[in-house]
Amino acid sequence: MSAISELSSMSRRKRPATAEEKRANRRDNKAAYIFLLPWLIGLVAITVGPMFMSLYLSFTDYNLLQPPEWTGLDNFTRMLGDARLHNSLRVTFTYVLVGVPLQLAVALLIALVLDKGLRGLPFYRSIFYLPSLLGGSVAVAILWKQIFGTSGLVNQVLAMFGITGPGWISDPSTSLGSIILLHVWTFGSPMIIFLAGLRQIPNMYYEAAEVDGATTLQKFWRITLPMLSPIIFFNLVLQIIGSFQSFTQAFIVSGGNGGPSDSTMFFTLYLYQKGFGQFEMGYASAMAWFLLVIIGAFTAINFIASKYWVFYDD
Amino acid sequence: MTELRTLPAPEKVPASGGKSRGGSPRAGGRKRESRGTLAFSRSARLKAMAKHAVLIIAGGIMIYPLLWMVVSSLRPNELIFREPGLWLNSLEMGNYTDGWSALTHPFGHYMLNSAVVVIGSILGNLISCSMAAYAFARLQFSGKKLFFGIMLLTIMLPFHVIIVPQYILFSQIGWVNTFWPLIVPKLLATDAFFVFLMVQFIRGIPTELDEAARIDGAGHPRIFLRVILPLMVPALATTTIFTFIWTWNDFFGALIYLTDPEMFTVPVALRAFVDSQSATSWGSLFAMSIVSLLPVFLVFLFGQRFLIKGIATTGIK
Question: B153: nearest CA in chain A?
């Protein structure tokens, strides 16, 4: 169903070729490579080439003006002692580890409420889905900046109840929370995936459980959750990968500096500042590879852990 | 929360079933007492009503900030920090006229720039991704498995890992402050997600159709153009819509490659607007934000079917 299940099934088992495939085994290499040509050029010139180039640059000092100068592991040892980088890691990890589960929980909850024959489903679905289309835009980040400002919408509403709210985004203790909330607000796309997944659970399981006198909660834990676990896993992997790269919201809300006092300094924001603010391309490349390793590690852990909780019905 | 429309179980429903989960303790409580279909349909109705109540409140909270931004953009500036409601006393278009001409170029200039990038990206993705997808879905060739695996992996590759060398490459060709760095990668199928989406779709098209065309003497280009492409219009539509929205919203790429105000796309223009203005012009800032969201909203309105299908079958934001 998804890129992820496809990848994991590629590694899980080798399917014997079907008769049809064997028959079609005459190859059309020439035609195939012509069709693949744009993609192949892109892979080499835009993706894999630059990847290795940035691996090389991560061992150099490079400011775009002078040619790169080999400095060995300097960039990496420098990262070990870079307090702002450590802080940016903390910020990013908090964002990912709080924002992603929260967003998925809301998405699942609303999907469960929406599931099965509720009148007006398309309408509700649109309402909940719309924010996830707009959430990545600069415009919504601007809106957030106002809403969570000192005299923004949230505090205006709170004032009606006699509460004086903090300056959410100008206060280092709440600024990250405001951005996490923006992430949760965009729960619409995982919700749609959950809805599609819920629809695929055969009704007979629930009917059988009801005959056995299962409660709603039991049905949720014993049927819905296991049957939905591949979808939850899929959402989890994608959202974690995506959230580590989150950039626009923190950039706009903080005015590009990751403030106040670095409380919204995402790793990507720091990388941008190093690379494109100070043109320390070598250091930025080292950071980018570090990010790749982190995301890779998280994804690997996810895949390994999935063996214990993801249930494949095949 | 599954369904309650099936008949109650013969055994007594255990008590915990009653206080199941958020929203409708009342409906659940009634369920225990209900035996006859009449009473049951009433509890089902209550249940549905509770669901609607939850959804309307949640949906209202979700959408309120957007509505409020629209209303605020039609208000005099000073009200934005004083009026949390949605009531409009008068219609103020001044924010829109002010915002439109607040930057070095009229806002339409940036929208035009964005449109150029968007159209280029859409064409690029449609052509290059469908070609690659045809090869992966229909052709046998050496290295197919390996390439396909690599293609799937690149979907998950963080953009930041390649952005520095990519920037160096494009700046050496002299493409900084042109639209090429934003369009050319799409012409080269680097949005592998769409390749995957189309592969999935093509796999669903019966191979008998290709076979028939082949027997009629058609080669691969012909099968691709005459058989597969016309049949994969839904996948092409999904690609078009997603590319539109993602490209229209793309901030990071534009931020890096477009530094000359002449070339600004909408997101970077808005960002320049935020930076240049003090807190006094929120009205016009809101107005231009609305203008920038409008195309996405329209696409959402008319292309929703493809969007939802696209997400549900391949699952990416």
Answer: A7
- pLDDT of B1 above 50: no
Nearest to B190 among A47, A116, A288 (CB): A47
Q: List chain B residues with CB under 8 Å of A139.
A: 270, 288-290, 292-293
Q: How far apart are CA B283 and CA B286, in angstroms?
A: 5
DSSP letter for each residue of B190-226: --HHHHHHHHHHHHTS-HHHHHHHHHTT--HHHIIII
> Both ends of chain A: CA-CA distance in Å?
13
Confidence grade of residue A43 (pLDDT, cut at 50, 70, 90): very high
Confidence of residue B19 (pLDDT cuts 50, 70, 90): very low
**Interface contact A117-B5, CB threshold 8 A:** yes
Nearest-angstrom CA–CA distance, A284 and A249: 20
A136 contacts in chain B (CB < 8 Å):
246, 249, 251
Residue ranges in A115-224 assigned as alpha helix (H):
121-134, 138-147, 153-160, 175-185, 188-199, 203-211, 216-219
* Distance (Å) from the alpha carbon of A165 to chain B's nearest alpha carbon: 14
A57: number of Cβ within 10 Å: 24
- Distance in angstroms between the alpha carbons of the first and the last residue of chain B: 25
Nearest chain B CA: its distance from A53 CA (Å) = 6
Q: What ipTM was reported for this prediction?
A: 0.88
pLDDT in tens, B238-248: 999 999 999 99
DSSP secondary structure letter of residue A222: I
Confidence band, pLDDT 50/70/90 cuts, at residue B282: confident
pLDDT for position B47: 83
pLDDT digits (tens, 9 = 90+) for B62-117: 999 999 999 999 988 888 888 888 888 888 888 999 999 988 999 999 999 999 99
Residue contact B304–A213, C-beta within 8 A: no
Chain-chain contact of A110 with B55 (C-beta, under 8 angstroms): yes
Q: What is the SS3 assignment for A69?
A: strand
Closest-CA residue of chain A to B201: A1
Q: Strand, helix or coil at A70?
A: strand
Tokens, residue B220: 């691969």
**A13-25 average pLDDT score:** 55
Residue type for B229, please?
L
What are the pLDDT digits (tens) for B156-169?
A: 888 888 999 999 99
Q: What are phi and psi of A163, to 5 degrees?
A: -105, 135
Inter-chain residue contact A248 with B167, CB threshold 8 Å = no
Which phi and psi angles does A70 have, rounded to 5°?
-65, 125
CB A125 within 8 A of CB A192: yes
Looking at residue B18, its amino acid is G
Per-residue pLDDT at B35: 45
Cβ <8 Å between A292 and B161: yes
Contact A140, B62 (CB under 8 A): no
